[in-house]
Structures
1.
Amino acid sequence: MTQSLLFLVVGVCLWVIGLYGLLRVRHVIRRLIAVNIMGGGAFTVMVAIAVRTDPVDPVFQALVVTGLVVAVSATAFALRLASAEAHCTRRRESRP
Amino acid sequence: MTLALMSLLLPLASALVLLVLRARSPVLMILATLGSLIAAAGALYQVVDGGEQLLALGGWEPPLGIRFRLTPLSGLLLVFTALIHLLVAFYAAASRHSQTRHTDYWPLSGLLHASLVALWLSNDLFNWYVTLELLGLVAVALVTLAGPKAYRAAMRYLILSLVASLFYLLGVALLYGRYGVLDVALLASLTEADATTHTALLLMTLGLMLKAALWPLHLWLPPAHAGAPTAVSALLSALVVKGPLFILWLIWSEIAPPALARDMGFIMALAGVAALLSGGWSAMRTPYIKTLVAYSTVAQLGYALMALGLLLYWELPELHVALWLFVLSHGLAKVSMFLAAGEMQATLGSKRISALTGATQTMPVAMFAFAVAGGSLIGLPPSGGFLAKWLLLQPLFAEPANWFWAFAVLLGTLASAVYVFRVVALAFDRAKPTRPDFDPHVLAQWLALIPALLVWGMALVSQPLILWLTGVTH
């Protein structure tokens, strides 16, 4: 229980740190990292709640796996969009 | 249920076929949407006739499995989604200026359609998270079709959408940790008024309000919706923001403990009033055509939020009907308005409202569509917008204590009248009309007009529609 509580607190802290970062930083890549930290926090909370029961709740594990898949694909898409945006900005600036 | 699944699978399969074959032909997608519309109509007929249907996906029963639930309301939303997609697809295929002929619009709109149908059919908190993410990703991809100038707005939309999902996800995790079920029907009988439930509901509400662009979390909407290609703007305003609203409605009217729902309802109704006024004010001031239409979406969502808030606050069942009539009539009117605005903007060669000078002469049909759709947004009888507003106003007029809310609605109506007539008055200034850059495209203008005529047609069937909705939303 105490271990689960520790991870619960860590997860919530990560989520809040991510949110704080997101509100503070402007750079696109940093904002994406902040979103990912928030996501990590949410998944840690889910895992921490899952291990409270014996045996470990399988539904929660399935949710975390699904959530990770969603997070990875969303991040990939966001990175592609960020690089396209940076490319366009650079081309616009290099034009006389 | 088979028909409802057909309505989901047809656009999904066609989108995947287009992606695999690297084909971008509109024909397949239009046929799939038409098929989806027919299947949805069949599903609606079945569910009205035989009552609610449940389907345990893969044969797994809850709490482990996921259930699809087809209610009369979700059946109606299936038909509505397919209809809007069909109307927009005709425009996107026909218009010379839609920026969507033979582009990635076709597979993406199919995916959008499928995600929306999955959202209407889901009845499970986590499945909603997945459909919300799908909806967000596809919507952002659709916005990027407008080219590099839309990338910044798209990026902002994407990040906000991801953050909103994480708010929602944390709320879902807390609720599941507390009760051990995700199915809404099961959860509804379990919830108690304790701190965990309150925190979870609050987190989910914040996430959903951000996704639905409800005041004060609406600032991402105007750049994203105004920057997208015209057909995409229409889909985003008419359908995408309604998905999170649907979840919000189900969460608060089914899961939330009544005492908390009453308090939250009051806050939501106030936020709705603020949305009406601030959205209306911005729409009056903006110099750009499509931004005006986008801000009008913010304002109109204020009515929906107000109806939702007041129905929770007073526990008035007739406001459910007002809420869903708002969603339907706003969807149709907004499609028409965006298509007309986009067509005029492209033909007249300027994004500015001042370019619409004399548009009643140069592009009469598109301007007529804009005005007719605007009439429904204002709530002029006998349009769909009038029906919704009338249902909302009835309980407000009943008691003097409620006149504050009635006054707010009237103020919102005044604001929408100002921003619609601002455009219409300019369009009748025929002394020096703006010369079109291209020959006005008559077919595209008529396609923009059809949804507006449909929303006025809603008034013809008003009484059966209201009685039927009263039956199904209880």
2.
Amino acid sequence: MPIGLKLYPELCHGCGNCVIACPVNSANSPEIAGGKGPTDDVEVIMIVEDGEITMRNSGLCGKCGTCAESCPVDAIRLEELE
Amino acid sequence: MEILYIKVKVSVINTHGVIMPKHIVSGLRYLAAVELRKKGYTQREIAERLVMDRSTVSHYLNGRNISWNSIEIADVIRNLCPRDFSILTYALVKDKEKTRNIVKICSIRKYECNVKNTCIACGICVDVCFMSAIVLEDLKAQIDPNWCCGCILCGEQCPTNSIEIKEVEDNGDNRTY
Amino acid sequence: METTELIEGKDISVERTGEEERKLEFKDALCASCGLCEKICPVSAIEVTPAGAMVRTEQDVSKIDIDENKCVLCGMCSCICPFEALDLKIGGESIKDMEEYPSLLKSAKISEDTCIYCKACETACPQDAITIARQLPERAKLVSGEIEIDKETCVDCGICEEMCPADAITLEHKFPSSDDPTVSSDIIVDKDKCVYCLVCKKACPVDAIKAVCRICSYGDYDINPEDSEIVGSSYIDDELCVNCGWCQEICPVDAAEVTKPFEGTLTLNQDLCQGCETCVMACPCNVLSFPQSTEPGKKPEKLHKDEKYCIYCGACQKACPVGAIDVERTKINSTPVRSKSWQKAFDSVKTK
């Protein structure tokens, strides 16, 4: 089974750490690394919407685990996908 | 192959009541003994080659101690395609060395074997060959055409499609499998 | 003929029984997730687990996955692996010991004749593959002098004991009683420990210590050179060693010699790099690092490399989520490749 990004919105506190830490997100939009939310036209892997983490483009993920490391509540993980 | 196999089964049931696998093996050995006799081997040499008693060879060659029915079935098996012939013979004889001998002696056809440079020497062909005709040399499979029975089991299993077996017919026509 | 897979912890073995018995063994602890096996496999039987996931998060899976239904046990992965993580055995013998199979020319050696056992390599080795055992000379044999404490004059203040840098002076402290109203029963100098530095003599408030250092006054005339010899031994664990060259580069006396399996180039795209550190964690050779700023307001390069230590395995490139690293292999140092298909496979892992 391949390893991929898995979200647990029910655990998410909506802090947005993962969105900012993700190197793919910040490569696509430098504003994200600065802490500013992405504009609608920027392709991001995940985003916080209504206080919950939401997947946008899982295909962009390079599986580096930076998001998982930055999450304080284990709401985003690299796991074996079913 | 399936149709032919069913035919064999039918003939087993219809014409003789019960024929055991060992009877068919006897038939195959008979065919092999006859072939060797044709090539001028003595009874002693035939017995050695087929790992049999000399007296049994003598009986076989004189048509004794063997039912014609077993010979008929063995002959049907021999005339199956090379692949079915070798697989079926192995299933009956259950010994690689003996299968190898019988198939080699009874095969009428000749083959030309070529291994392409794409061979990666994984050794699967060596493992599947009933005839032990393949060895690996310098990371490439080498097939001994004298032992190749044309079953092309090797070619079917080859992960890189590197094996070419061609039947060499008497009229010089080459047929690729 | 049957192919079976056995997983023990995170180690994997794939076995095929037949005319010849073939067994491919994978040792997870040695794997650096570089992906060379995945790249060279002619039947696409190997999949490497993303390195970032392995180094950052806890995973129950092995660093690679071998599909036993696809694996034909040809051994190419075993011959290209620079980390000895994969090994194909035919009839119990490793193909790395067989002449007909190409094997990577890689080695690391420490010359016992030259080594001064300074342990720099042991400290620098990224894989803790080096052990330096050394035996130091007896300190007492390297100094010469005399020391004596006049116990009549001594007031048992303990200042010398406190100040001695070699812990050579011991005062037997005690509580004074009416029949023996002293605070110490004895004062002892351990002459094996004393280095005749004369600190005690200078510190003593009542001048009770007489001491002299012969080395200082007469030079080293009475020191036997053999007594100052340092003996030791060095050991490199070949299984753990990744032939990165750290030992060779850091050795002050050029005692270490390393041959690397690949040659090539490593290119970092500083603009693409987002500083996630995944490559730094993935690199088995400590080639990459984040430099510290040297002065306020001065921005150093984002990601620093030193190719002296690089073996061009490609682990960093495979780990980078934004494609900021490019590893190019231009040469594979190996024993002769005897088959055309194997040569082609080896060539396929060259360049990118």
